[in-house]
Design a protein that fits this description.
The longest helix is centred in the middle third of the chain and has 31 residues. The chain has a two-stranded antiparallel ribbon. With 213 residues, the protein is mainly α.
Length: 213
Amino acid sequence: MDCAWFLFSFDGRINRAKYWLAGLIIVCWMIFFGMLVFAIAATFHAAPASFGYRIDDIFRIVDPTSLSSAVDFFRHADFRSTATLIPALFYAIGSSLFLWVYAATSIKRLHDRNKSGWWMLPFFVAPGLYHQFEERLNDSYIVALLGLVVGVLALWGFVEMLCLKGTSGPNRFGADPLARRDTRPRWDQQSELEFVPHSAGPSTGAHVKRGHD
């Protein structure tokens, strides 16, 4: 398997097993990055108080309140301190890496279901945005209905991407990843036929070689 294509490319298709594997890889990378941050910071005797990745952090970019808090943090943070600099660097690198891998593998999984990558909007973006702003929405029937719709979309996305089998055979996005390939060697006609020169015998032309005893 081409790991670079599997984790970073947006083209082609992957089946359910590989999509589950991608999720496991992301979780393992998160744990590894976290352990690495604490190990490096501890080397400089400045271990950070906390460190971690969350999907919700992606949607803080479009939240003015959270974005303002982040700007204030970076404005007053002392990046000369190892305890501040190391987590910030690893968080920026790790978040970008994990988001890319998640998007790439999710879109390929949607392709396996013969769906465009734009289905990430109702399956992932809409639930994430709702969850980010949920606490600031007023209690009303409209908000409750919106929450129900978003919940249905999130459940639909879970079933589509993690539970259902991909379309059988090739589709508009590529070949079936579960299709069996015939690995048997092809018949080499030239090696099986020999041409006998003209002689006084009763027949001439091509003959199939006989195996040697």
